[in-house]
Amino acid sequence: MDFITQFHQSVSGRKMINMKAEPDILIPNIYTCQSTIQTNLLKLLAGGTCPIDYPFSFSFSPFTGFLFLYTLSGSGKLNCEHFSAIMTEQTGILFDCTHSFTLQTAVLPWKFKLFFINGNDWDSYHALSPYPIKPFSIPVHSAFHQNLSKLSGIPNQYSDYDAIIMHKALTDILCDLYLANIPAPTPSSSIPEYLVEMKNQFDYHYQMKFSLSSLENTLKINKYRLCREFSKFYGMPPLQYLNQKRIEIAKEMLLTTDYNIHEISSYIGYENTNHFINLFKKSTNLTPSAFKQTVLVEQSALHSPVQ
């Protein structure tokens, strides 16, 4: 069965918020190779740039392939049985479509690049990577963006030459995603491995819900011991470290995005916005709004010409 047939057959029980939204908006381009000799190369199946200015929500049953989505502006959500991810500006996600999922808008207009991909190397990547994979951030000047542009330039009917360009760009992107999701190995030290793992969970998956009891169950280490030893090596209790990490992410989002306080609170893992505001004020002595205004005023004064 070809990919497009699979794609259309997989749409099940979708909630149509807006009746003009059809799943084909996710596949503006359908890619086919003029030759069949590149069967084992990484390849695009369908996708492209999607500028969406109306709400949609599509639910998909499992089908073969991987979904790669990178948000240019606005935001959307990807929900599945194991997790829910909010994809904000300059963040992306790689998702295994053999799991059921729902894709929907969050903040409009939502502009994103979406590609459905296949190839043997994705299976290797999936085996090496943690599941579920959380949204990743890519620096503005990363070569990732150049490779993304190369994919956007691939014609619908592509040649053998295009297939090699496509494979190389996807391989480079795969490596970037892998490095973004897998923490770099730490030098040998006296820090126990389970503490390093716990810190990495906070650093790379801060949006998830954590408690000392859940960490105890996951790591099979007494929660009081975890708290005591984490404080010894990292200078503060684990949940305080997590809160500090979230506040640092919130500061960055306040200064670099247009998301409101509630959206930022939800993105970094706080469903209760008032709780987030109180934690932020405790950390900075300012509310999130006051922090943003203060920093922007200071930056404006810094760049103003001297009188």
Task: Tell me what you see in this structure.
The chain has two domains: 3-181, Jelly Rolls; 193-301, Arc Repressor Mutant, subunit A (Orthogonal Bundle), CATH 1.10.10. The mean pLDDT is 85. It has helices spanning 3-10, 120-128, 143-152, 160-181, 193-204, 212-219, 223-234, 238-256, 261-268, 273-284, 288-303; strands at residues 29-30, 32-33, 43-52, 57-60, 66-79, 84-87, 91-96, 101-118, 136-137, 157-158. 27% of the residues are buried. The N and C termini lie far apart (71 Å). The strands form two sheets. Strands 1, 3, 4, 5, 6, 7, 8 and 9 form an eight-stranded antiparallel β-sheet that branches. A two-stranded parallel sheet has the order 2-10. Helix 5 packs parallel to helix 8 (238-256) and helix 8 (238-256) runs antiparallel to helix 9 (261-268). Helices cover 44% and strands 21% of the residues. The longest helix has 22 residues, at 160-181. The radius of gyration is 22 Å and the shape is globular. A hairpin with a 4-residue loop joins strand 5 (66-79) and strand 6 (84-87). The protein is α+β, with helices and mostly antiparallel strands and 307 residues long. The protein has eleven helices and ten strands.
